[in-house]
Sequence to fold (1118 residues):
Amino acid sequence: MRIGLLQLNPKVGDLPGNAARVEAAYARAATLGAELCLTPELALTGYPPRDMLLYAGFARAAWAQAQSLAERLHQKYPHGPALLLGCPEANATGRGKALFNAALWCEGGRIVRSFRKALLPTYDVFDEARYFEPGDASAGSGVVEYRGVTFGVTICEDLWNDKDYWPHRLYPVDPVEAAVAAGACALLNLSASPFSLRKQTLRQDMLATIAKKHGLPLAYCNQVGGNDELVFDGRSAIMGADGALRARAEGFAEDVLVAELFGPAAAPVKPEDLSAPAETWRALVLGTRDYLAKCGFKKALLGLSGGIDSAVVAAVAAEALGPQNVLGVLMPSPWSSAGSIDDSLELARNLGIATRTIPIEPLMQGFDTALAESFAALAPEKGPDTTEENVQSRIRGNLLMALSNKTGALLLTTGNKSELAVGYCTIYGDMSGGFALISDLPKTQVYALARHINTLKAPAIPPAIIDKAPSAELKPDQKDQDSLPPYEILDAILALHVEKERTAAEIVAAGYDADTVTRVCGLVKGAEFKRRQAAPGIKIAWRSFGSGWRMPLAAAALP
Amino acid sequence: MRIGLLQLNPKVGDLPGNAARVEAAYARAATLGAELCLTPELALTGYPPRDMLLYAGFARAAWAQAQSLAERLHQKYPHGPALLLGCPEANATGRGKALFNAALWCEGGRIVRSFRKALLPTYDVFDEARYFEPGDASAGSGVVEYRGVTFGVTICEDLWNDKDYWPHRLYPVDPVEAAVAAGACALLNLSASPFSLRKQTLRQDMLATIAKKHGLPLAYCNQVGGNDELVFDGRSAIMGADGALRARAEGFAEDVLVAELFGPAAAPVKPEDLSAPAETWRALVLGTRDYLAKCGFKKALLGLSGGIDSAVVAAVAAEALGPQNVLGVLMPSPWSSAGSIDDSLELARNLGIATRTIPIEPLMQGFDTALAESFAALAPEKGPDTTEENVQSRIRGNLLMALSNKTGALLLTTGNKSELAVGYCTIYGDMSGGFALISDLPKTQVYALARHINTLKAPAIPPAIIDKAPSAELKPDQKDQDSLPPYEILDAILALHVEKERTAAEIVAAGYDADTVTRVCGLVKGAEFKRRQAAPGIKIAWRSFGSGWRMPLAAAALP
Fold:
């Protein structure tokens, strides 16, 4: 039984476009001898469609598109493979949420039956209980016989509740177990499993464990591509009944994988470089390319400060969009060092991107003049403070947005996760922009990525940018470490507090300095209002700011 | 049986503070003769605690606080009433989400037992399946006998699934039915039911219907106060077994209501003005006051443009914070009409708020100069366009934020729902600010509210501001209606598309002009990126932009 995994990169909501993508991949799989094809989860709508699913007209249009795709495939390929197509299905029971998250069995020109996802993830970035009624996970509901093989059909999370694999289970039922009890002799899974660091190792291990435990081969088809903050890394796979990886589709690229489900394995699958910087680079390049393309942008611009963050963002953008489509803008102030300007120009030359330089001193003076009288009247006791630093940053934001508006290039904002966590950034200033592509990378990981980039292509990021002490250069001789703990300490505390949900008291108990922890956790709380208005970024960590981070604003600090 | 409803205004996460609020209200209820007291849902954490619930240390601290509160109350009031206290409870079953949403029966100095919410709303702004495992809704689990009365205890949504009341039910079980089957002879409900227009009528009707259907009295204790975008309107109530309203607590204010559950009703309850502008005014004033207070701000500022939006925001702010704590900033450009300045000054005089005036022409010239060379190099074919309008708006945003940073006053942004829907606003410009208090009011409702404000206090908003044609005044002789359909049409289309989830095709089918509908729906899609970075506002409508609006960005348009 040759299975075709249609590892597609859908655009969310683009029903005709996604149907065409399925058709093209199906045709290729058929040519390669596939007898049964799988798409990713909700391939017709793209994942996640989010609140588009609340529009009944959208769900109806998706269903109509699925029907017409089934007809079209049968007309063009009358003896072609059956297709399991991810698509929402209306809930006609009269109770509960309006939809099921379904896999439609398309054969002979029609939708023959549907399989409904039973386990609906409702954590982190997932909101499936918001839209879907769970399917029935009792024995027999998830199996189908086709060409002499009884398949157990599951959708994404359905596979992630094995009682022997997980020490803590979220759901009382295991659809895989139910399918096996109903006589499945092979497992199929339609997935939309987003990338995060170290997830591929976990996923691969879990797939192997489940296949081996039940002694059944398993075909897993994952989505690929960037959809807003989520990057799907593909890597669809066929596991043998012994738990061995038989075949794997590309990582971070569309692919059609056709492989035999039973019998002896072919050649061993080549391992990938799963190091954090290598994975991060691939995720950022794909996520950036797709975000811009799917939003209709060809070009991007960004401010080049001479620092590591903007250097890394420029390198990613140049790779994702082509250097000819990236503009670097230098906006020196009296506090900018000569090195910052030279380093930025060298970076741009290395990457092959164009630059513009717009000094901001006259505008700084203009704001000083405009504000002097009001400051004197309203806060006569105050001298220059962070207000003036923020004004500088917002002048730059205004210039960059003007260039964006005039040229149609998307403004990339360059903040990292460490500064977004503690609020070391100016809202409407350097936070301005449509996409914050490294906003889930702690500063220490930004450095690691910069070094990795220089191993891929040299010269890329000038060593001076990597070696200098980080500075916002918003006042004379400013250094980040004047007002923040060393980044190694800061990032370690943030990993516990933001990604592992530890309270300050727990972090102190783990051995960190109490004053530092209290201060850092207080800064995280105090910067919540900035994050609420931040541009979307690319999810890299297990837990990220963005749609999976839902903190109250007008609230007390955590204990 | 005299029931005490402790209608509290908790601060989210403020465990000691909320415990003190419960204690003070309990003491007052005891003085008034209450035999049993109810708090709102999750009163100890405040509702909604959102992702604070993911911190195990937070849930543990809440439980410890509940225990110590139970002890303290018993020590101080050894013969006092039992207390039903809303608080998260750890799920010790070893499977599923970490918590239950519980009501703790506190008596004799300890937590005697818990009741667990069975129906977990996971729609609109509610994400309860993200945090909580549902309680058991089978008969017997939700009743308790106390002083000879068998009470059925439910939490908020548990009450909202009556099969005779709702044509479409979300859940298969009805905890009220189960409690009645188990012998309940009175119903208790701990709620955190947020305000939206027309909801009080629905709620009152539903409470009456359920009480009457089962022939049982019902005590309903709702939270009050603003927590981020949600305003809770209180109006806790005691319904008689005949469905008649026996007593109602204050709307939009803390209250302790003690009333008899059984026997003949006291005097009829005075009806409230539930007109949309009256309800909106009360919600905005409370929501604004609480947002600033709970965020630690005493003062606010805003830009006064001479238009209706900033006039209404100024009036709300003056009422919520006191006029002495509100600053209006005029920032005229060469395109500002003399009327705009005069009208703003008259408004400020009427409201009693201070003003500052900062002309922006020099800064506009500064940006023109700074950008001229780059514009000529990068987009030589383009003349002045919306770019220059956005630069103006962002200059104003920078000035306002500088005043905010220097003085510690929160910047209120003044955009309405119609312009936020279609993107008729400048990101990092007039969208700058920490709180967007009328961002859920369509323009037509802003006018209605302005007229209502003038009935409460005259002179408040000068008639010229209400009567003039709306204009952004970002270029000569600009009027909103040059580029938008009339607001009556626009708001009607938006109500269908944004609040009732109708696709463009369905709205056209309902009789609206196809070109207009296509254009408006396209603008809504195109402005998603602005809304993603918008300040939080106050929920007024059934469906609002904000945490209950989760649309993809890099996506195709709805069909």
Q: What stands out?
A: Chain A touches chain B through 100 residues (CB under 8 Å). Residues 335 and 475 of chain A are 6 Å apart (CA to CA).
